[in-house]
Structure formats: C-alpha cells, structure tokens
C-alpha cells in the first residue's frame, strides 16, 4: 500500500500518514466490503483515493521529496531481470521529482493499471489532459534519467 501512495505523493512522511489514515478507513468500512474484487484491490483503491484526496486538499503546498528514501533496499546484487538495485532506485527517485500531476498520472496509468478515462474521472480532468500529462511525465523522466546517467 505504501509503495502505491509514495509514488503519488512523493514524500515519505506524507505517504506514511496517508497509509495510516487509509487503514483506519479500511477498518471502519470493512463491513462495506462486498467481495466483488479481492480485499487487496479494495484496500489499495482506498489508499489511492486517500492520496488523491490529500493532493487535492493540499495542491498549493509544495511536495517535499526525500532523496534518501528507498523503495527497496539497495543491494549490489542484480535482480532476476539483471537490473541492478541502484538503477531501480534511480528510477524511483526520478519519478518522485516529477511535477505532482505528471507523477500522479504516470503512477496511476503505469503502475496501478488505470485507464486514461479512469484517471480523468479520479482527477477531474479530461482524458486528453491525462494522456498529455502521461506523455510529459515520460519525457521528463527520460530527460532526468539521461542526465543522471551522464552525471554518475
């Protein structure tokens, strides 16, 4: 749950607060779980909605990104796909540096499997805006990763 939220909000402290509030909501609303989907998917949807709600309420507040935060323990070993952990960490750090709306659309589309229409409904934007923000996020991410590759 935390990983889905951190990708949306960018700040570890804020993500922890949102996940905590999300679990409170889950326990209070457990009687409403109808079993139409898995409990994990239902809970994750609540967490994502909490994150989106938080970002809507605080859209003028700057997002503080902790560059030292790691989604996974950085190890020297390579994972099954042959991607080194530091490369994964670099991608996660770059995602957190994206502008809020770009980060939200990218995370919802790429990691959570939302369609652009679903994103548009959730964020109260048009479907074309969602697509534009996604393309912008990919471009910014590519530029950041290219620049950091040559720096490091």
How would you sum up this structure in a few lines?
This protein has seven helices and no strands. The protein is mainly alpha-helical.
Oligomer: single chain
CATH class term of the largest domain:
Mainly Alpha
What is the helix/strand order? HHHHHHH
Number of helices: 7
Shape: globular
Strands, helices and their partners?
Blueprint: H1 2-9, H2 12-29, H3 39-57, H4 85-96, H5 100-111, H6 116-123, H7 127-151
Helix pairs in contact: 1-2, 1-3, 1-5, 2-3, 4-7, 5-7, 6-7
Give structural notes.
This protein is mainly α and 152 residues long. The chain has helices spanning 2-9, 12-29, 39-57, 85-96, 100-111, 116-123, 127-151. Helix 1 runs parallel beside helix 3 and helix 1 (2-9) runs antiparallel to helix 5.
């Amino acid at each position: 749950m935390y990983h889905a939220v951190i990708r949306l909000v960018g700040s570890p402290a804020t993500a922890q607060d949102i996940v905590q509030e999300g679990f409170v909501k889950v326990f209070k609303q457990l009687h409403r779980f109808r079993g139409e989907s898995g409990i994990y998917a239902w809970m994750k949807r609540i967490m994502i909605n909490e994150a989106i709600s938080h970002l809507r309420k605080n859209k003028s507040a700057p997002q503080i990104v902790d560059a030292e935060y790691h989604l996974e323990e950085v190890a020297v070993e390579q994972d099954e796909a042959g991607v080194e952990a530091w490369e994964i960490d670099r991608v996660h750090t770059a995602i957190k540096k994206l502008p809020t709306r770009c980060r939200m659309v990218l995370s919802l589309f790429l990691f959570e499997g939302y369609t652009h229409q679903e994103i548009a409904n959730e964020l109260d934007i048009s479907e074309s805006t969602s697509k534009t923000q996604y393309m912008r996020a990919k471009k910014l991410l590519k530029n950041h990763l290219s620049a950091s590759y040559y720096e490091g």
